[in-house]
Amino acid sequence: MIDSRTVATISSIEELDASLSSAVSRLFRRVRAEKASDQISDSHRSVLALLVKEGPRSLSELSEHQRVKPPSMSQTVNALVEQGYVERRDDPTDGRKVILTATASGQALIEETGRRFHAWLQSHLVELSEDDRETLRKAATIIRRLADS
Amino acid sequence: MIDSRTVATISSIEELDASLSSAVSRLFRRVRAEKASDQISDSHRSVLALLVKEGPRSLSELSEHQRVKPPSMSQTVNALVEQGYVERRDDPTDGRKVILTATASGQALIEETGRRFHAWLQSHLVELSEDDRETLRKAATIIRRLADS
DNA sequence: TATTGTTATACTCTATAACTATA
DNA sequence: TATAGTTATAGAGTATAACAATA
User: Fold this and answer.
1) What are phi and psi of B68, to 5 degrees?
2) Cα B66 to Cα B143: distance, rounded to the nearest angstrom
3) Which residue from A109, A131, B51, B133 has the fewest beta carbons nearer than 10 Å?
């Protein structure tokens, strides 16, 4: 049964949907623009950041996590190894596998990249009212739940 | 001067930054995954959606809006014209310009794409409490302000 | 001269197919 | 046989450089 209250809810959900989609998409583009002033590409940084934050991984683990095929990840890893950001060594327990580890230089790069973006976002967050920040805190939790569901 | 209260604010802003960055990034990836089940690529759809929603544009207007160089946009537009989603005609008032317009087929494609994604998001939004939706409404406004600043 | 757009060419990231080496 | 990874090759999207046409 659809009464007037249900109709109001549907309409407000469509508006929320449109508003939220647009806002998130704009923020994401802004994030990308900040990151773009970097030496390293988005996909390379994303792999390097995973190795820095979550430790060594095999090639297939990386390719699954980034949702690319193994040959693509192989190429990405090659570039990172050549640039000295990642070290590749054989897995002693399984000769088919390789273990990819971020080097000190790779760690430093990720920290610098993060520092720059977060400096941008934080400088804007600090200008908000505490009420607005509290709203964003709650929203982040809700958005994360939505994205993971 | 940094007192204990300032320190507390800095720390909470760092946490909000981390939490918000992560949540937005996850939602965006989820959005992309929904869209990926499409015939048309992300960059092409983005251009077509602009023409559908905001009306005819010149090539340089499109390239500026999407932040790509004119030759790249020229190629994107070529593909959309070949597929029948966009019509290209000369600007009667300025012989250098071209006017790009979405065709009926292009409009239909964007509507279908939107329908599918919004169905996903809306189906999740209706499951939230009204309080959570109100939080998201406020957050969308704040996030948009952040992204545009 | 400056602006609008196109063509030619190259680079990056991704994919599929075919292969090697190991389990 | 199945799994982990690499090499070869191709396609999509982007860029720069050089160009043509118009203002």
Assistant:
1) -125, 165
2) 20
3) A131
| Selected residue with higher pLDDT from A12 and A99 | A99
| CA dist list (Å): B130 to A10, A12, A16, B62, B135 | 12, 10, 11, 38, 9
Q: Model pTM?
A: 0.68
Q: What letters, b where the CB count within 10 A reaches 16 and e where it falls short, cover B58-70?
A: ebebbbeebebee
Q: Which nucleotides of chain C are near protein (any atom < 7 Å from a CB)?
A: 3-9, 12-18, 21-23
Rg value, chain A, Cα: 21
pLDDT tens by residue, B71-95: 999 999 999 999 999 999 999 999 9
- pLDDT value at residue B62: 94
For chain B, domain boundaries: 1-37, 40-148
Q: What is the CATH architecture of A40-148?
A: Orthogonal Bundle (1.10)
Residue A69: which nucleotide is closest by CA–C1'? Answer: C15
**C-beta atoms of A137 and B13 within 8 A:** no
Distance from CA of A94 to the nearest CA of B (A): 33
How many CB contacts within 8 angstroms connect chain A with chain B?
A: 151
Token pair 């190629």 is found at B75
Coil/strand/helix, residue B96: coil
pLDDT digits (tens, 9 = 90+) for B28-86: 666 666 655 567 887 898 899 999 989 999 999 999 988 889 999 999 999 999 999 99
The beta-carbon neighbor of B147 closest among A23, A135, A138 is A23
